[in-house]
Write a structure and sequence with these properties.
This protein is α/β, with parallel strands linked by helices. It contains seven helices and five strands; from the N terminus they run αβαβαβαββααα. The protein has a five-stranded parallel beta sheet, with helices on one face. InterPro entries: NAD(P)-bd_dom_sf, SDR_fam.
Length: 167
Amino acid sequence: MTNKQHPIGTGFGPASTTTDVLAGIDLTGRNAIVTAGHVGLGLETTRALADAGANVVVASRNPGTAAAALAGVDRVRIAQLDLMDPASVDRFVAEHTDTPLHMLINNAGIMGGDLVDADIAPLEPDVRPVSIEMGSGPLTLTPGVTGYAVDPESAEKLWELSEKLLA
């Protein structure tokens, strides 16, 4: 790789915490879905969003494991979701269409497949998915929830790491 990374001037560095990043940000009344929000980066993301006031649905293939990891974290609900099972995705979407969605964090990583070959429905202009680990699994949820649950009045641009990773 010949291109070196350069700081983008965020004011945050290697020692910055999620508390630093979210300082002064009130997410009260905002709703988030975090896939695999009970492990690794997803766990830290879930805790940070909940600490900032967001209501967080953690989507997990293993709800029992998720419940144990998130014990004591307020404003978190756990829901069963297997991103590799279309019926599971459909059930999850149907169960979450009555609440406005402000953030979708596709943290679950299932390696395999090629993003270029993915069959993905177009997203609304104000909705951008996050994919921390690229794979076909996380991309199955995005079209479902953006078609039903995004509140058009208050939809926020969802964190977009995938574009930066693929650039």
